[in-house]
Structures are given as structure tokens and as C-alpha cells.
Specification:
Blueprint: H1 2-36
Length: 52
């Protein structure tokens, strides 16, 4: 029983790391494509909108 729980935990961690890695690689690819096309401002800035 405990081995099943440990196996589930290890599998969950590996899946989470895999998803994080895939997202990071996709973001790096987008930035690299922008730079290679001659883009000057390839980093997207998150600017919060002012509340009114």
C-alpha cells in the first residue's frame, strides 16, 4: 500500500516537471524566433491596468 502511494507521488512529480519543462521550452522558442526575425522588444511585459 505505501509503495503505491510513493509510486503515485513520484509519478505526479515527474508529470509536473515535464509540463513545466514543456512550457519553458515553448516560451524560449517563441523568444528565440522573435530575436532571429530581428525583433527588438521580444519580452512581453505584464502591466496591470489601473482600477477606476
Amino acid at each position: 500500500m505505501t509503495m503505491n502511494i510513493v509510486a503515485l507521488a513520484v509519478t505526479s512529480v515527474l508529470i509536473a516537471i515535464g509540463i513545466w519543462l514543456a512550457i519553458t521550452i515553448a516560451d524560449m522558442r517563441k523568444k528565440q524566433d522573435c530575436y532571429l526575425q530581428g525583433g527588438r522588444n521580444c519580452n512581453q511585459l505584464a502591466i496591470p491596468q489601473a482600477e477606476r
